[in-house]
Protein backbone atom coordinates (compact mmCIF):
# COMPACT_ATOMS: atom_id res chain seq x y z
CA UNK A 1 0.00 0.00 0.00
CA UNK A 2 1.31 3.43 -0.97
CA UNK A 3 1.61 5.86 1.93
CA UNK A 4 -0.75 8.82 1.64
CA UNK A 5 1.31 12.04 1.29
CA UNK A 6 -0.70 13.96 3.87
CA UNK A 7 1.81 16.75 4.49
CA UNK A 8 2.20 17.41 0.76
CA UNK A 9 -1.59 17.43 0.36
CA UNK A 10 -2.11 19.81 3.27
CA UNK A 11 0.55 22.09 1.86
CA UNK A 12 -1.64 22.70 -1.19
CA UNK A 13 -4.47 24.21 0.90
CA UNK A 14 -3.67 27.70 2.27
CA UNK A 15 -6.74 27.71 4.55
CA UNK A 16 -5.29 24.85 6.60
CA UNK A 17 -2.50 27.07 7.89
CA UNK A 18 -4.80 29.90 9.05
CA UNK A 19 -5.35 30.62 12.72
CA UNK A 20 -7.62 32.91 14.70
CA UNK A 21 -6.08 34.77 17.65
CA UNK A 22 -3.35 32.16 17.67
CA UNK A 23 -5.75 29.22 17.64
CA UNK A 24 -5.48 26.62 14.87
CA UNK A 25 -8.48 25.71 12.72
CA UNK A 26 -9.83 22.17 12.34
CA UNK A 27 -12.06 21.87 9.28
CA UNK A 28 -14.60 19.11 9.80
CA UNK A 29 -17.45 20.95 8.07
CA UNK A 30 -16.49 19.27 4.80
CA UNK A 31 -19.88 17.72 3.88
CA UNK A 32 -21.16 21.30 3.54
CA UNK A 33 -18.15 22.42 1.50
CA UNK A 34 -14.41 21.78 1.43
CA UNK A 35 -11.46 24.16 1.35
CA UNK A 36 -9.70 24.67 -1.98
CA UNK A 37 -6.11 24.17 -3.12
CA UNK A 38 -4.06 27.22 -4.09
CA UNK A 39 -4.19 25.95 -7.67
CA UNK A 40 -7.98 26.38 -7.78
CA UNK A 41 -7.83 29.97 -6.54
CA UNK A 42 -4.99 30.69 -8.97
CA UNK A 43 -6.97 29.29 -11.90
CA UNK A 44 -10.00 31.44 -11.08
CA UNK A 45 -7.83 34.54 -10.69
CA UNK A 46 -5.86 33.84 -13.86
CA UNK A 47 -9.06 33.44 -15.87
CA UNK A 48 -10.49 36.72 -14.57
CA UNK A 49 -7.27 38.60 -15.25
CA UNK A 50 -6.21 37.14 -18.60
CA UNK A 51 -9.17 35.45 -20.36
CA UNK A 52 -12.13 37.53 -19.20
CA UNK A 53 -14.59 37.69 -22.08
CA UNK A 54 -17.93 36.32 -23.21
CA UNK A 55 -18.05 33.49 -25.71
CA UNK A 56 -18.62 33.42 -29.43
CA UNK A 57 -16.20 36.02 -30.79
CA UNK A 58 -12.96 35.91 -32.75
CA UNK A 59 -10.55 37.96 -30.59
CA UNK A 60 -7.96 36.51 -28.24
CA UNK A 61 -9.81 36.59 -24.91
CA UNK A 62 -13.06 35.11 -26.22
CA UNK A 63 -11.17 32.30 -27.94
CA UNK A 64 -9.25 31.66 -24.71
CA UNK A 65 -12.46 31.76 -22.66
CA UNK A 66 -13.99 29.10 -24.92
CA UNK A 67 -10.95 26.93 -24.31
CA UNK A 68 -11.51 27.27 -20.54
CA UNK A 69 -15.12 26.14 -20.96
CA UNK A 70 -14.15 23.20 -23.17
CA UNK A 71 -11.42 22.13 -20.75
CA UNK A 72 -13.85 22.12 -17.83
CA UNK A 73 -16.28 19.85 -19.64
CA UNK A 74 -13.49 17.46 -20.61
CA UNK A 75 -12.12 17.46 -17.06
CA UNK A 76 -15.50 16.50 -15.64
CA UNK A 77 -15.95 13.84 -18.32
CA UNK A 78 -12.68 12.35 -17.09
CA UNK A 79 -13.73 12.73 -13.44
CA UNK A 80 -17.07 10.95 -13.94
CA UNK A 81 -16.07 8.45 -16.61
CA UNK A 82 -18.41 10.00 -19.18
CA UNK A 83 -18.32 8.92 -22.80
CA UNK A 84 -18.12 12.50 -24.06
CA UNK A 85 -17.85 16.07 -22.76
CA UNK A 86 -21.16 16.68 -24.54
CA UNK A 87 -22.77 14.76 -21.67
CA UNK A 88 -21.49 17.25 -19.06
CA UNK A 89 -23.83 20.10 -18.09
CA UNK A 90 -22.36 22.76 -15.79
CA UNK A 91 -24.49 25.22 -13.85
CA UNK A 92 -25.00 27.22 -10.69
CA UNK A 93 -25.40 24.36 -8.21
CA UNK A 94 -26.90 20.91 -7.78
CA UNK A 95 -30.33 22.14 -6.69
CA UNK A 96 -30.75 24.65 -9.51
CA UNK A 97 -29.66 22.09 -12.11
CA UNK A 98 -32.05 19.51 -10.68
CA UNK A 99 -34.95 21.94 -10.80
CA UNK A 100 -34.07 22.74 -14.40
CA UNK A 101 -33.78 19.10 -15.45
CA UNK A 102 -36.93 18.10 -13.57
CA UNK A 103 -38.94 20.69 -15.53
CA UNK A 104 -37.37 19.55 -18.78
CA UNK A 105 -38.26 15.93 -18.04
CA UNK A 106 -41.72 17.02 -16.97
CA UNK A 107 -42.54 17.94 -20.54
CA UNK A 108 -42.87 14.25 -21.33
CA UNK A 109 -44.85 13.26 -18.20
CA UNK A 110 -48.61 13.16 -17.73
CA UNK A 111 -51.05 12.93 -14.82
CA UNK A 112 -50.97 9.51 -13.16
CA UNK A 113 -47.34 8.81 -14.06
CA UNK A 114 -45.33 7.68 -11.04
CA UNK A 115 -41.98 8.81 -9.63
CA UNK A 116 -40.06 7.21 -6.76
CA UNK A 117 -38.24 9.30 -4.18
CA UNK A 118 -36.20 8.02 -1.24
CA UNK A 119 -36.33 8.90 2.45
CA UNK A 120 -32.51 9.00 2.31
CA UNK A 121 -31.95 11.87 -0.11
CA UNK A 122 -30.87 15.44 0.38
CA UNK A 123 -33.78 17.83 -0.14
CA UNK A 124 -32.19 19.01 -3.40
CA UNK A 125 -33.14 15.64 -4.91
CA UNK A 126 -36.59 15.62 -3.36
CA UNK A 127 -38.32 19.00 -3.55
CA UNK A 128 -37.81 19.52 -7.31
CA UNK A 129 -39.59 16.24 -8.00
CA UNK A 130 -42.28 16.76 -5.34
CA UNK A 131 -43.17 20.12 -6.81
CA UNK A 132 -43.12 18.72 -10.34
CA UNK A 133 -45.54 16.03 -9.18
CA UNK A 134 -47.80 18.68 -7.67
CA UNK A 135 -47.72 20.72 -10.89
CA UNK A 136 -48.42 17.78 -13.20
CA UNK A 137 -50.58 15.46 -11.10
CA UNK A 138 -47.91 12.79 -10.80
CA UNK A 139 -48.02 10.04 -8.16
CA UNK A 140 -45.10 10.04 -5.69
CA UNK A 141 -44.07 6.74 -4.15
CA UNK A 142 -41.71 6.88 -1.16
CA UNK A 143 -38.78 4.50 -0.77
CA UNK A 144 -37.50 4.26 2.84
CA UNK A 145 -33.98 3.22 3.78
CA UNK A 146 -33.39 0.16 5.95
CA UNK A 147 -32.51 1.19 9.50
CA UNK A 148 -30.37 -1.92 10.00
CA UNK A 149 -28.25 -1.68 6.85
CA UNK A 150 -28.63 2.13 6.58
CA UNK A 151 -29.05 1.67 2.83
CA UNK A 152 -31.85 1.56 0.30
CA UNK A 153 -32.56 -2.10 -0.30
CA UNK A 154 -33.17 -3.58 -3.74
CA UNK A 155 -36.24 -5.51 -2.63
CA UNK A 156 -37.86 -2.36 -1.29
CA UNK A 157 -37.34 -0.59 -4.61
CA UNK A 158 -38.61 -3.55 -6.62
CA UNK A 159 -41.80 -3.55 -4.54
CA UNK A 160 -42.60 0.04 -5.52
CA UNK A 161 -42.00 -0.18 -9.25
CA UNK A 162 -44.89 -0.48 -11.68
CA UNK A 163 -45.55 -0.03 -15.38
CA UNK A 164 -46.36 3.60 -14.54
CA UNK A 165 -42.97 4.38 -12.97
CA UNK A 166 -41.21 6.99 -15.05
CA UNK A 167 -38.35 8.10 -12.81
CA UNK A 168 -36.42 6.97 -9.74
CA UNK A 169 -34.38 9.59 -7.85
CA UNK A 170 -31.61 8.06 -5.73
CA UNK A 171 -28.62 9.26 -3.78
CA UNK A 172 -25.18 7.71 -3.95
CA UNK A 173 -24.25 8.55 -0.35
CA UNK A 174 -26.16 10.23 2.45
CA UNK A 175 -25.04 13.63 3.71
CA UNK A 176 -26.24 12.69 7.22
CA UNK A 177 -25.64 8.98 7.77
CA UNK A 178 -22.74 8.67 5.32
CA UNK A 179 -24.18 5.42 3.95
CA UNK A 180 -23.35 4.48 0.35
CA UNK A 181 -26.14 2.97 -1.72
CA UNK A 182 -25.60 0.14 -4.20
CA UNK A 183 -26.46 2.42 -7.10
CA UNK A 184 -25.60 0.01 -9.90
CA UNK A 185 -27.89 -2.76 -8.68
CA UNK A 186 -30.68 -0.31 -7.77
CA UNK A 187 -30.39 1.26 -11.21
CA UNK A 188 -30.57 -2.12 -12.92
CA UNK A 189 -33.85 -2.88 -11.15
CA UNK A 190 -35.31 0.50 -12.08
CA UNK A 191 -34.23 0.16 -15.70
CA UNK A 192 -35.95 -3.22 -15.98
CA UNK A 193 -39.18 -1.35 -15.25
CA UNK A 194 -38.37 1.22 -17.93
CA UNK A 195 -37.73 4.10 -15.52
CA UNK A 196 -35.15 6.84 -15.82
CA UNK A 197 -32.68 7.02 -12.92
CA UNK A 198 -31.42 10.33 -11.50
CA UNK A 199 -28.54 10.00 -9.01
CA UNK A 200 -27.38 12.61 -6.50
CA UNK A 201 -23.66 11.96 -6.01
CA UNK A 202 -22.83 15.20 -4.19
CA UNK A 203 -21.67 13.45 -1.01
CA UNK A 204 -19.99 10.52 -2.74
CA UNK A 205 -17.92 12.49 -5.26
CA UNK A 206 -15.24 13.69 -2.78
CA UNK A 207 -14.68 10.17 -1.47
CA UNK A 208 -14.94 7.64 -4.29
CA UNK A 209 -14.41 7.12 -8.01
CA UNK A 210 -17.59 7.57 -10.06
CA UNK A 211 -18.07 5.62 -13.28
CA UNK A 212 -21.35 6.70 -14.82
CA UNK A 213 -21.16 4.17 -17.63
CA UNK A 214 -20.67 1.33 -15.17
CA UNK A 215 -23.54 2.54 -12.95
CA UNK A 216 -26.00 2.47 -15.83
CA UNK A 217 -28.02 5.47 -14.61
CA UNK A 218 -29.34 8.22 -16.89
CA UNK A 219 -28.35 11.27 -14.88
CA UNK A 220 -25.82 11.91 -12.13
CA UNK A 221 -25.16 15.19 -10.38
CA UNK A 222 -22.44 16.49 -8.06
CA UNK A 223 -21.11 19.76 -6.63
CA UNK A 224 -17.57 21.01 -7.19
CA UNK A 225 -17.32 22.81 -3.86
CA UNK A 226 -17.68 19.46 -2.11
CA UNK A 227 -14.54 18.13 -3.84
CA UNK A 228 -12.14 21.06 -3.38
CA UNK A 229 -13.49 23.21 -6.22
CA UNK A 230 -15.54 26.39 -6.67
CA UNK A 231 -19.27 26.79 -6.04
CA UNK A 232 -20.98 25.18 -9.02
CA UNK A 233 -22.94 22.06 -9.93
CA UNK A 234 -22.22 19.45 -12.60
CA UNK A 235 -24.87 17.24 -14.16
CA UNK A 236 -24.01 14.27 -16.33
CA UNK A 237 -26.72 13.04 -18.70
CA UNK A 238 -26.53 9.97 -20.88
CA UNK A 239 -26.12 11.20 -24.44
CA UNK A 240 -28.94 9.18 -25.98
CA UNK A 241 -31.29 10.53 -23.29
CA UNK A 242 -30.37 14.22 -23.30
CA UNK A 243 -30.26 14.37 -27.11
CA UNK A 244 -34.02 13.81 -27.12
CA UNK A 245 -34.88 16.38 -24.44
CA UNK A 246 -36.22 19.85 -25.08
CA UNK A 247 -35.03 22.13 -22.29
CA UNK A 248 -36.42 25.50 -21.30
CA UNK A 249 -34.07 28.01 -22.96
CA UNK A 250 -33.90 31.26 -24.86
CA UNK A 251 -35.18 31.00 -28.44
CA UNK A 252 -31.95 32.25 -29.98
CA UNK A 253 -29.49 30.33 -27.79
CA UNK A 254 -27.61 27.29 -29.05
CA UNK A 255 -29.31 23.96 -29.62
CA UNK A 256 -25.98 22.14 -29.35
CA UNK A 257 -24.92 19.89 -26.51
CA UNK A 258 -24.41 20.64 -23.74
CA UNK A 259 -25.06 24.34 -24.45
CA UNK A 260 -28.82 23.99 -24.77
CA UNK A 261 -28.97 23.05 -21.06
CA UNK A 262 -26.51 25.70 -19.83
CA UNK A 263 -28.61 28.82 -19.43
CA UNK A 264 -27.08 32.27 -19.84
CA UNK A 265 -23.43 33.28 -19.78
CA UNK A 266 -21.28 30.53 -18.25
CA UNK A 267 -19.37 30.98 -14.99
CA UNK A 268 -16.16 30.86 -17.00
CA UNK A 269 -13.77 31.74 -14.18
CA UNK A 270 -15.34 29.07 -11.96
CA UNK A 271 -14.99 26.55 -14.77
CA UNK A 272 -11.27 27.29 -14.73
CA UNK A 273 -11.31 26.47 -11.01
CA UNK A 274 -13.29 23.32 -11.71
CA UNK A 275 -10.60 21.99 -14.04
CA UNK A 276 -8.00 22.77 -11.39
CA UNK A 277 -10.02 20.84 -8.80
CA UNK A 278 -10.13 17.78 -11.04
CA UNK A 279 -6.41 18.18 -11.66
CA UNK A 280 -5.85 18.21 -7.89
CA UNK A 281 -6.99 14.57 -7.88
CA UNK A 282 -4.95 13.78 -10.98
CA UNK A 283 -1.92 15.38 -9.34
CA UNK A 284 -2.38 13.27 -6.24
CA UNK A 285 -2.57 10.15 -8.39
CA UNK A 286 0.64 11.14 -10.14
CA UNK A 287 2.34 11.86 -6.81
CA UNK A 288 1.75 8.29 -5.68
CA UNK A 289 3.08 6.76 -8.85
CA UNK A 290 0.32 6.62 -11.48
CA UNK A 291 1.65 7.55 -14.94
CA UNK A 292 -1.39 6.84 -17.11
CA UNK A 293 -4.26 9.02 -18.32
CA UNK A 294 -5.92 11.70 -16.22
CA UNK A 295 -8.76 9.26 -15.53
CA UNK A 296 -6.27 6.65 -14.32
CA UNK A 297 -4.56 9.20 -12.09
CA UNK A 298 -7.91 10.21 -10.61
CA UNK A 299 -8.72 6.56 -9.93
CA UNK A 300 -5.39 6.11 -8.15
CA UNK A 301 -6.01 9.25 -6.09
CA UNK A 302 -9.28 7.84 -4.82
CA UNK A 303 -7.67 4.48 -4.09
CA UNK A 304 -5.12 6.07 -1.76
CA UNK A 305 -7.60 8.60 -0.35
CA UNK A 306 -10.05 5.88 0.65
CA UNK A 307 -7.25 3.92 2.31
CA UNK A 308 -6.33 7.07 4.24
CA UNK A 309 -9.83 8.37 5.11
CA UNK A 310 -11.40 5.11 6.27
CA UNK A 311 -9.12 4.60 9.30
CA UNK A 312 -9.76 8.22 10.30
CA UNK A 313 -13.50 7.58 10.11
CA UNK A 314 -13.16 4.44 12.24
CA UNK A 315 -11.01 6.33 14.74
CA UNK A 316 -13.79 8.92 15.02
CA UNK A 317 -16.53 6.30 15.31
CA UNK A 318 -14.63 4.33 17.95
CA UNK A 319 -14.00 7.47 19.99
CA UNK A 320 -17.64 8.55 19.89
CA UNK A 321 -18.96 5.07 20.62
CA UNK A 322 -17.51 5.14 24.13
CA UNK A 323 -19.69 8.08 25.22
CA UNK A 324 -22.78 7.01 27.15
CA UNK A 325 -26.06 8.30 25.78
CA UNK A 326 -24.51 9.09 22.38
CA UNK A 327 -26.09 7.53 19.28
CA UNK A 328 -24.30 7.42 15.94
CA UNK A 329 -26.85 7.50 13.12
CA UNK A 330 -25.15 5.33 10.52
CA UNK A 331 -22.89 2.36 9.95
CA UNK A 332 -20.46 1.69 12.82
CA UNK A 333 -19.33 -1.87 12.05
CA UNK A 334 -15.61 -1.78 11.09
CA UNK A 335 -16.27 -4.59 8.60
CA UNK A 336 -18.66 -2.30 6.71
CA UNK A 337 -16.45 0.76 6.52
CA UNK A 338 -16.51 0.46 2.73
CA UNK A 339 -20.28 1.01 2.78
CA UNK A 340 -19.98 4.58 4.05
CA UNK A 341 -18.21 7.85 3.40
CA UNK A 342 -16.40 9.50 6.36
CA UNK A 343 -19.37 11.64 7.41
CA UNK A 344 -20.49 10.80 10.95
CA UNK A 345 -23.63 12.19 12.61
CA UNK A 346 -24.75 11.71 16.19
CA UNK A 347 -27.15 12.83 18.88
CA UNK A 348 -26.75 12.80 22.66
CA UNK A 349 -29.61 12.07 25.05
CA UNK A 350 -30.90 15.25 26.66
CA UNK A 351 -28.54 17.64 24.84
CA UNK A 352 -29.53 19.80 21.88
CA UNK A 353 -26.96 19.31 19.06
CA UNK A 354 -26.52 23.04 18.55
CA UNK A 355 -25.24 23.48 22.10
CA UNK A 356 -22.45 20.97 21.44
CA UNK A 357 -21.56 22.55 18.12
CA UNK A 358 -21.50 26.10 19.47
CA UNK A 359 -19.01 25.11 22.15
CA UNK A 360 -16.79 23.26 19.69
CA UNK A 361 -16.98 26.06 17.13
CA UNK A 362 -15.75 28.38 19.87
CA UNK A 363 -12.69 26.13 20.09
CA UNK A 364 -12.16 26.59 16.32
CA UNK A 365 -13.35 23.08 15.49
CA UNK A 366 -15.64 23.62 12.54
CA UNK A 367 -18.66 21.33 12.24
CA UNK A 368 -22.41 21.58 11.82
CA UNK A 369 -25.64 20.83 13.63
CA UNK A 370 -29.18 20.64 12.24
CA UNK A 371 -30.99 18.53 9.68
CA UNK A 372 -28.51 19.62 6.97
CA UNK A 373 -31.29 19.32 4.36
CA UNK A 374 -31.56 15.59 5.10
CA UNK A 375 -35.21 16.35 5.82
CA UNK A 376 -36.59 12.90 5.09
CA UNK A 377 -33.89 11.10 7.09
CA UNK A 378 -34.52 12.97 10.33
CA UNK A 379 -38.25 12.38 9.97
CA UNK A 380 -37.85 8.65 9.29
CA UNK A 381 -35.55 8.34 12.32
CA UNK A 382 -37.82 10.41 14.56
CA UNK A 383 -35.16 13.06 15.16
CA UNK A 384 -36.65 16.52 15.82
CA UNK A 385 -36.04 18.42 12.59
CA UNK A 386 -35.55 21.71 14.41
CA UNK A 387 -32.61 20.12 16.27
CA UNK A 388 -31.14 17.56 13.89
CA UNK A 389 -27.75 16.04 14.62
CA UNK A 390 -24.12 16.91 15.21
CA UNK A 391 -22.30 16.22 11.93
CA UNK A 392 -18.55 15.68 11.56
CA UNK A 393 -17.18 15.19 8.05
CA UNK A 394 -13.65 14.15 7.15
CA UNK A 395 -11.79 15.13 3.97
CA UNK A 396 -8.46 13.80 2.76
CA UNK A 397 -6.62 16.80 4.19
CA UNK A 398 -7.63 16.02 7.79
CA UNK A 399 -5.25 14.25 10.17
CA UNK A 400 -5.42 11.70 12.97
CA UNK A 401 -4.26 14.42 15.38
CA UNK A 402 -7.25 16.55 14.38
CA UNK A 403 -9.61 13.63 14.98
CA UNK A 404 -8.08 13.02 18.41
CA UNK A 405 -8.38 16.68 19.35
CA UNK A 406 -11.98 16.72 18.16
CA UNK A 407 -12.83 13.64 20.19
CA UNK A 408 -11.27 15.17 23.28
CA UNK A 409 -13.43 18.23 22.74
CA UNK A 410 -16.61 16.19 22.25
CA UNK A 411 -16.01 14.29 25.49
CA UNK A 412 -15.22 17.45 27.43
CA UNK A 413 -18.11 19.51 26.03
CA UNK A 414 -20.69 16.79 26.68
CA UNK A 415 -19.42 16.34 30.23
CA UNK A 416 -19.61 20.10 30.81
CA UNK A 417 -23.15 20.37 29.41
CA UNK A 418 -24.30 17.46 31.53
CA UNK A 419 -22.80 19.05 34.62
CA UNK A 420 -24.56 22.33 33.87
CA UNK A 421 -27.85 20.51 33.44
CA UNK A 422 -27.59 18.56 36.70
Topology:
Layout: H1 6-10, E1 19-20, E2 23-24, E3 26-27, H2 38-50, H3 60-80, E4 88-91, H4 94-106, E5 114-118, H5 127-136, E6 139-143, H6 154-160, E7 165-171, H7 183-192, E8 196-200, H8 212-215, E9 219-223, E10 233-237, H9 239-242, H10 268-287, H11 294-321, E11 326-328, E12 343-348, H12 353-362, E13 365-366, E14 368-370, H13 375-381, E15 389-393, H14 400-421
Parallel strand pairs: 3-13, 5-6, 5-7, 7-8, 8-9
Antiparallel strand pairs: 1-2, 4-10, 9-10, 11-12, 12-15, 14-15
Helix pairs in contact: 2-10, 3-10, 4-5, 10-11, 11-14, 12-14
Account of the protein in words:
With 422 residues, the protein is α/β, with parallel strands linked by helices. Helix content is 41%, strand content 14%. It has 14 helices and 15 strands. The protein has helices spanning 6-10, 38-50, 60-80, 94-106, 127-136, 154-160, 183-192, 212-215, 239-242, 268-287, 294-321, 353-362, 375-381, 400-421, and strands at residues 19-20, 23-24, 26-27, 88-91, 114-118, 139-143, 165-171, 196-200, 219-223, 233-237, 326-328, 343-348, 365-366, 368-370, 389-393. The strands form 4 sheets. Strands 4-10-9-8-7-5-6 form a 7-stranded mixed sheet, with helices on both faces. The protein starts with 5 loop residues before the first helix and ends with a helix. This is Cysteine desulfurase-like protein. Pfam families: Aminotran_5. Residues 26-404 form the Aminotransferase class V domain.
Descriptors for this entry?
422 residues; alpha/beta; 4-stranded antiparallel beta sheet; PyrdxlP-dep_Trfase
